[in-house]
Amino acid sequence: MKYLVILHAADQLQPLDHARFRRTAEEAGELVDGQLLADPSLGTRLGTCGAPIHAYYLLDVESSARAVELARLLPEATQEGAGVDVRPVMFAAAADY
């Protein structure tokens, strides 16, 4: 099952180190993709929302519990002013669920 791990952080936070997360997920063959995003001031936000998204990772794991386990390795999971969403990715009319 695929999960999108969405990292949020307040504008003033410095980019955080994701090496432990990336190493663990890559060695297990569970990291599909991941990118840091440009500074929010370079994009366009429509509507109101919480802290900006500053990175994402796409995981292919056996369970939501494993996706959460990996997400807990990210510093955004525990840092004040930051957060992590772990969401299942819906494919082909939710055939995976």
Strand element count: 4
CATH superfamily: Dimeric alpha+beta barrel
What's the CATH topology name? Answer: Alpha-Beta Plaits
CATH class: Alpha Beta
Are there runs of 5+ residues with pLDDT below 50, and where? none
Helix content: 10-25%
N- to C-terminal separation?
9 Å
Radius of gyration, CA atoms, in whole angstroms: 14 Å
InterPro entries: Dimeric_a/b-barrel
Protein name: YCII-related domain-containing protein
Organism: Kribbella lupini
Provide a compact summary of the structure.
This protein has one domain (2-88): 2-Layer Sandwich (Alpha-Beta Plaits). 18% of the residues lie in helices and 30% in strands.
Please characterize this protein's 3D structure.
This is YCII-related domain-containing protein. It comes from Kribbella lupini. The structure is a single chain. This protein has a single domain, classed as 2-Layer Sandwich (Alpha-Beta Plaits). The chain is built from two helices and four strands, in the order βαββαβ. The chain is 18% helix and 30% strand. The longest helix is centred in the first third of the chain and has 9 residues. With 97 residues, the protein is of the alpha+beta class. Strands 2-3-1-4 form a four-stranded antiparallel sheet, with helices on one face. The model has no long low-confidence stretch (mean pLDDT 87).
